Structure formats: C-alpha cells, structure tokens
Amino acid sequence: MVKDEEGIIIEIFVNNIARVKVGRHNECKNCGACPGDNSVVIEAKNPIGAKVGQRISFQMKDTNMLMAAFVVYIVPLIAVVIGVLVGQVIAKMFGYNPWGFQIGGGIITFILSMINIKKFDKFAHSNEKMQPVITQIIS
C-alpha cells in the first residue's frame, strides 16, 4: 500500500533529491522518535523537478515503514532475549552462576542489534525502492 503525504521543500541536492519538511501525522504523534516538535524532515526523490519553497505531495510505501519499525523496535528485543538465553546456556556449560552471563549476553546482543539498525539505516537511505518519491506540486 502506498501512502500520500504533503510537505514543503526546504532544500534541493544535486542528485535530484529534495529535503522535505513534513507535518506529523497520527502515527508519528504517538511515537515521538522523530526530531522536531511539529515536523519531520525527510529526503525524497524529486523526479518532477520541484523547487525550494513549493508545497508538494509525495508517496511512501507502508511496507517500508513496517519493516523499519520491526528493525528498530522488535529486533533488539528478540536479540536481547536470545543473548540472555545463550548466556544462560554458556554459564551452565561451565558451571558458573548464570546471572552475569545472562546480563553480558543481553548487553552484547543489544549492542549488535544497534549496529544492525545503523546498517539498516544506511541500506534504506541508499535503496531506491525504499525512498519516498515526490509525485506532484500542490502550490
């Protein structure tokens, strides 16, 4: 499913990418993870040649948002649980108290999941299919 959003172009880059200031929608108001009080700044492909200051409409795929939410919120939780379980197994193998190994395993896998989020961010930023696309100039 594709979602249409509106925003104002605040900057144009050489490679036909525009920085767009977007007002928050209902999904964003509950999260609060994005910077800014009432707006978010995103980068979108600009195939129609919109200029700075113009109000535009752009499309963003819902599947991209779901995948990003899964990677950012769910994967770290799963990683920590796996790290705790692996730490417990390792402690039992060597006959130690499992508390320290569980905590250590959880911390290590949480750090690895943060590295994974950074890599996903770079991948999503460079992937043509995941970037929003400006579809029309409103004013």
| Whole-angstrom Rg | 20 Å
Catalogue the unreliable spans. none
Order of helices and strands: EEHEEHHE
Q: Which geometry do the CA atoms define?
A: rod-shaped
Instruction: Count structural domains.
Output: 2
In the CATH hierarchy, what is the class of the largest domain? Mainly Beta
How much of the sequence lies in strands comes to 25-35%
Strand order of the largest sheet: 3-2-1-4-5
- State the major sheet: 5 strands, antiparallel
Task: Tell me which oligomeric state these chains represent.
Answer: single chain
Walk me through what this model shows.
The structure is a single chain. The protein contains three helices and five strands; from the N terminus they run ββαββααβ. 49% of the residues lie in helices and 27% in strands. The chain starts with a strand and ends with a strand. It is rod-shaped, with a radius of gyration of 20 Å. A hairpin with a 4-residue loop joins strand 1 and strand 2. It folds into two domains: 68 residues, Beta Barrel (OB fold (Dihydrolipoamide Acetyltransferase, E2P)); 58 residues, no CATH class. It has 139 residues and is of the alpha+beta class. Helix 2 packs antiparallel against helix 3. Strands 3-2-1-4-5 form a five-stranded antiparallel sheet.
Secondary structure blueprint with pairings:
Layout: E1 2-12, E2 17-23, H1 26-31, E3 39-45, E4 55-61, H2 62-94, H3 98-126, E5 133-137
Antiparallel strand pairs: 1-2, 1-4, 2-3, 4-5
Helix pairs in contact: 2-3
